[in-house]
Specification:
Structural class: mainly beta
Radius of gyration: 13 Å
Distance between the termini: 10 Å
Number of helices: 0
Order of helices and strands: EEEEEEEEEE
Strand content: over 45%
Largest sheet: 6 strands, antiparallel
Shape: globular
Helix content: under 10%
């Protein structure tokens, strides 16, 4: 599996940041972001997945639902841990995001 992160910080290019699988089904990524408001989504293949732990929603330029986060001053990196939960074939993937820090909802848990 390849879990990716895209958003306004990549001009919605989901192929720039690929999360590293640190143990089977667990993905991590550290991302340096300056303070600001960012929209983002996770990608598994061609599927777009919103951050289900973050209730703040927006829409990507393609009209698909995405998530939004505010990175506050004093933080230079955003980091998160991702857990991939497999769904039965033919159903939508069930993705749960468990950020590794309180400001890390911009990274994913699948």
């Amino acid at each position: 599996q390849q879990i990716r992160l895209g958003g306004t910080f990549t001009n919605w290019d989901s192929w720039i940041y690929i999360m590293k699988e640190v143990t089977p089904g667990i993905y991590q990524l550290e991302l340096p972001l300056p303070p600001g408001t960012y929209q983002y989504a996770y990608y598994n293949g061609m599927n777009t997945i919103v951050d289900k732990t973050n209730p703040v929603r927006c829409y990507a330029p393609d009209g698909k639902e995405a998530s939004q986060i505010v990175v506050n001053k004093g933080f230079s990196k955003v980091s998160a841990q991702a857990t991939l939960i497999e769904a039965p074939e033919g159903t939508e993937s069930n993705v749960t995001v468990k950020p590794s820090s309180s400001i890390a909802k911009v990274c994913s848990s699948w």
